[in-house]
């Protein structure tokens, strides 16, 4: 049987996912076969496994930190919000259906066998399982039906570390208040507290730590610093959306990503964000758009709803004006669908009915109940416009979308489904308008390099030859930085003892 450790948080965004990723890398470095597990995840950023199943992005990142292949059993239930009161429910990597929050709350206990079956698969293969909770264990209105925090800890008999976010303030109230709202049996499961995202001189914090341990009766196993690591995030609480408003003042290339209400898979832009020549900004208002060199319409969990939001907010008109002026427009997944002439939803997969598209590409999309989930490899075909230099460049990524898009014209890229081996065409380009279903299409350095050079040439400027970035090597380095930071500031000896090792 595997040893377990569970990270719970005082709130969403307390840093549970990062802490789990760091522990996965530490245990792997120490010679243990380690796997992540989250029974129920709610996120719009997801990942497609090699066998075509869908899980939360955080568990894929944690698996990568543990140097293992992501698998569906690491996240048996994934909730992808479609609006403020409902989500698409994914069980064991496949679409189960759409449910309102009330419907799911009444149903979710029936999914416990799926959770236990998934955990058992990991239990049979690994030495340590790092379990991530969700939100807070002290949501007293949800505790009776809990399957992801203390309810799961009880099912798995897992010791718990509780993390609070000091960067937002009130960390002592967060931690003590959470402990006070727990039942005695639940409180007994908490073996350690973590003060996360600390900045400054730790000695100033010491009196508070002493009081925290005295009043809570639980040891503090770490005061972890705010670590500036670049690791993929999975939800809209990311600070990247805030930091990206101004971008890098010294950068020569300006890229604007439209920050839609249901934006998904914004990890597509991590490589571009980390290029020193690029200022990549997330834009929600027309006044913030200005005159970028490229506008990206990202993926979204509600294409029709977010297109109507763009129309109402005036952003659609601003993008159309930029397209008329020759600005490069690049749509990915839902953003690609928006660029077309019409979007039809006869089965009410999203909003229902028919919506006029932006009319920038000669395509039509019809939403279906069947979800495309696969990993792909591809090559850009002969494409036109500013990004014509991409012709012949290779890429890899994944598709994850509802609906089929048709056009009378040849696609922008030739792709191979690495799950089935099927070959097909993807996307379309017309002038300076480009669209694709492939997430991760910018992740190869060659692709990013050619985009940057092409945009610079259009501006009539020269950019010093970039030093190439091996993105996989970069991510590995980030996991090691995270692990090193946690080792320095957490009592790993005590954590191993808590796990019984």
Task: List its salient traits.
501 residues; six-stranded parallel β-sheet; 26 strands
Structural overview:
- With 501 residues, the protein is α/β, with parallel strands linked by helices.
- Helices cover 31% and strands 29% of the residues.
- The strands form 6 sheets. It has a 6-stranded parallel sheet, sandwiched between helices. A 6-stranded mixed sheet has the order 15-13-16-18-26-25.
- Helix 1 runs parallel beside helix 2 (57-65) and helix 6 packs parallel to helix 8 (206-216).
- The mean pLDDT is 92.
| Radius of gyration over C-alpha positions, nearest whole angstrom | 23 Å
Overall average pLDDT: 92
Major sheet: arrangement of strands: 2-9-1-10-11-12
Structural class: alpha/beta
Q: Low-confidence runs (pLDDT<50, min 5 residues)? A: none
Main beta sheet strand tally, sense and closure? 6 strands, parallel
- End-to-end Cα distance: 13 Å
Number of strands: 26
